[in-house]
Amino acid sequence: MEEADALEALGNVLERLTENPYDISLHAEHIRIANATGLDEQAESALDMFTAFWAAGDEIWLPLIDRKLKSANLESEEGLNAVLGLFERAEQDYLSIPLLQRHLEFLIERHEHYSTAEQKPEDLGELFSTEWTRAAISAVVSQGAGHLSRSHQLFDLQRDWVFEQLQNAPDTEKAPLIEHVESMLLGRLQQPHSNHDETFQAYSTFTTNYKPADQYESLLVKASKMKAQAVKTYQRHEPLEHSLTLASYSLEAYAYYLTSERRKKPDLFVLKTLYERAIAEAAKRRFAGEAGAEEALRSFWIGYLDFLRIQDVDDEISMATYNRALRSVPASGEVWARYMRFLERLDSDEVDSEIAGRFSDDVLSAYEKAMSVGPLVTDAEQLVPVVLTRAGFEKRRLQSGDASENGFAAILDILTHGINRVRKASPTGDPRLRLEKFFSAICLDLADQAEHALIMWEDTTKHYKTSYLAWTSYTDVLIKQRMLDDARKVFRDVAMKNLDWPEAIWDAWVTFEQLYGSVEAIEDALDRVERANAQTHARRLKEAERAGRNAMQLAAEQQAASVPVTEAAPPTQAQAPEEPGAAPMDVDAVQRGEARTKRKAEEEIVPDESKKAKLGMYESEGDRENCTVFVADLPSDAQEADLAALFKDCGDIREIKITQLSNARVATVEFHERESVPAALTKDKKRVHDEEVAVHLAWKSTLYVTNFPEKADDAFIRELFGKYGTIFDVRWPSKKFKATRRFCYVQYTSPAAAEAALELHGHELEPGMPLSVLISNPERKQERTDSGANDREVYVAGLSRFATKEDLENLFKTYGAVKDVRMALDNNGRPKGFAFVEFEREEDARAALSANNHELKRRRIAVTLADTHVRSKNRCFLTPHHSDPKAEVRNRSVRIRKLPPGTQEGLLHQALEKIAAVKRVEVFSDKNEADVELESAAEAGKLLLHADPIVFEGSTLEVLPESTGGARTSRPATPPAGGMFVPRTAVSRPRAGLGSKKRVTTIAASSSTAAVPGQASGPQAQAKGQDDFRKMLSGGK
């Protein structure tokens, strides 16, 4: 960027920042443009401006500190205090190990500088004396002491510096230093951290050098006992720390870690720092512009503040934490509300005047500050809790007699002002009407001012014309005031209106008439409700039909627009008409000799080689476990030839695979026939190279594991089961057909280890989730897989927007045990109108079909058996914008190359999910490549733009956009047929099954488009007619 352009851009962004100083994206842009100018003053000013409005991470503070170190006079007290003050400000924002390390390095470097200088500047006084430096270093290290995996980076600097001081100290000064070092080391041993062994070794060395020899053993025994609890604490957290690392410290992983810790008895030392770590990571990602980071950051702060309140921490610590939170998320209404309640508690607890004097805010000034934050007052969801908290504070003052004479009027003014702001902030306002309800309750219960409540609700119904909640609340107040005729008039007027939930207002009216009306009034209400119901039903049908037509038209237009011109083959010379308009129209005439129904018996069936090969593979897989033996305790130099010689008289061997584990050499031997296995088992205890080997059925050392937490990955399972013996392999299922699959196979090198691990069966890793661990007997395979899950699942459509998961569970549990209920939600978390219910048994799912046409929340629901394959194919037509499915799938897909041989789809799915949200993985083992479909194009971008190389099982993967990934032979690029237009030739297409040829969609390597199945190609291709046009509109088939 040219200097003039940069300066102009800088002026523009500064002007926008003046109008909106709480827009963090503008601050990030300001810093980027300031750096582009190359002017140090502008860059430093941009960083300073950021810290004035926002809490900053080390990405802001470290450059600022570097600039200050270069510009400050470090030989003067003023310069040193300026740097130290900057460090103090930086450390108050977020926990940062790099920042604390820089602080320690500065302290150590300055102390060494002044210690070796000929003369220390007189104006420094005690600054950077040995005692002062020791205390300053201890204070810095204590800030990061709770970081389980990285606190040693700080303590090691302190330890090395203190040891050096002790070593160089005169003998006359060593006694107090020895006492200090011993206290420091013993204190560290009692803190959970990752390198306890190294700390214990340091204490052992210290004891050897500086303690009497006869005390050595007793001191180490004492120290070992002191560290025991801390070691156990770290070991309990180590799996979660490891999972956090594998997840690249994602915000979801932090949320899971925090939830796990909150379920147990909370450890203040660990959990406090864990919240600090999560908050720092969320702030870093927010600054980088990551979607959802702001919401996660607010959630972490709210959880942290609530945790400190429950733990009843010191008021000064709480106040400091609230101030930090408000600098970090100034637009969070929930944080401001908690801060105001904290201030109210301080006032009511009559805190010591000296402490209270240090708390400059009170509830009123905090409220004014909150209302000055632009993003907060323009966000209705954040504004409501602040106004409610202020109004609640005034209500409690009024009830306690502390309020002024006009206390009631003040509450109404606050609420009225808040209601107007909420309605101005958002067109939808507050759908829950929280402020209006509070206003009404104050008027009715506190001051007997019903007229104010009625005026407010009348105004609310004018603003929220279609809100059933506004109308029912209005009629409730009328009924309480015995204004029955007015309530009846409102019911009559609103019954025919187009409300968001008309059934609620109808029920309220009928109930009202049952309580207060005459027989004529009841019948009149029922008649009007019936007419309104019919009208509403008809309107909904029309809206559904209109939406369906629009969706189909949009899908057809987009599909037609996506077909390249090159796909429409030009007519051959023989087909060309003699003159324009002379060509006859193709009107679906049956070609001579063409069968339109069943294939004739004499027709030759062309074998499908790809299908034959695939069937052969499945035949091999079906009995593979019964045909395989496992060989353990092999000598280190054993080769395939040795095993072939050992088993040569047992039967035909299909494959021998030798694997070198970290502490053992093992092999699997697979036979063509299962009858070979009994003979192979007699080779147990035979010798290979003069060493006994162990032979057993492979499945006897294999466990089938399910019902573990959803976040559990390969490392988690290996950690959990590894203590029972050497693990040979962990196999994970592919999720390409069913994303909810959650089981795996754990294979040990010996059956004894598998038997020992059965003790985990029934163990609850999470409350209410007992782990299922069984020996993987292939004869019972159907009982322990999810292959029949599709037949146990029903699809429920036509749901009311007010239906909940609990409603569905209550309805369908009457037909049998419900395993899972999955409701489709839109981007705002509201139901989309359909759901899937999975039962434990297939017969229960079939029984649940009788719920079809059942009325749930005033809506008739449709219940059919689910088909996951059909759902996955048609899911693209259920998306909100009905985008082109072919382009949509391609945009969110990538091709992975250079996979290691034998890659498991399940493991690759897990590894990639650490980087982006993965929807589907399909591995092509013959090419060592995979297709990966992500949840969105943005997620695909994360994978393509990942800064670090992606290493999987020792291989560095190559990630390419789907369009450059070559031919895809496993799944069609075009959507399935369906919609408004259906090709007539589709009627005669035979169903896949025995005796029918499977059609395979092939995508040529030189073209990005798929050939239409059944369409001739090459020189004899026919011109496109009506059938082809219908095929194009209906999905390309």
TrEMBL record:
Matching SUPFAM superfamilies: RNA-binding domain, RBD (SSF54928), TPR-like (SSF48452)
Keyword RNA-binding assigned: yes
Coiled coil: none
GO cellular component: U6 snRNP
Protein's cellular compartments: Nucleus
The UniProt record lists the keyword Nucleus: yes
Keyword terms: mRNA processing, mRNA splicing, Nucleus, Repeat, RNA-binding
GO biological process: mRNA processing; RNA splicing
Occurrences of domain RRM (ranges): 627-700, 701-778, 792-868
Summary of the function given for this chain in its UniProt record: Functions as a recycling factor of the spliceosome, a machinery that forms on each precursor-messenger RNA (pre-mRNA) and catalyzes the removal of introns. Chaperones the re-annealing of U4 and U6 snRNAs (small nuclear RNAs) released from previous rounds of splicing, an initial step in reforming the U4/U6-U5 tri-snRNP (small nuclear ribonucleoprotein) that can reassemble into another spliceosome complex; this step involves binding U6 and facilitating the unwinding of the U6 internal stem loop, followed by base-pairing of U6 to U4.
Entry protein name: U4/U6 snRNA-associated-splicing factor PRP24
